[in-house]
Amino acid sequence: MIELSWLWLRYQPDLALSRWFRDRVQGNDTHRYRKITIVAMARKLLIALWRFVTKGVVPEGAVMKAA
In this structure, is residue 64 part of a structural domain? Predict the structure, then answer.
């Protein structure tokens, strides 16, 4: 989930979770703080993806490709 969170930050920069992460680490850009915050983001992302799978609720700001 942590690897997925880093990829999510890279490829979904406009997602609400990505903005939340950037806002949290903006002033405290130490390596330790980023590691702690990415774990929190991974938990939030897991919940958002679970809601997408079970209820079909797309995470706010996510960009979906057409199949």
Answer: no
- Which bin fits 63, alpha (ψ -120 to 50), beta or left (φ > 0)? beta
Domain annotation covers residue 67? no
- Largest Cα–Cα separation, the chain: 39
Is 7 within a domain? yes
pLDDT tens sequence across 12-46: 888 888 999 999 898 876 888 899 999 999 999 99
What's this model's pTM, rounded to 2 decimal places?
0.79
Number of domains, the chain: 1
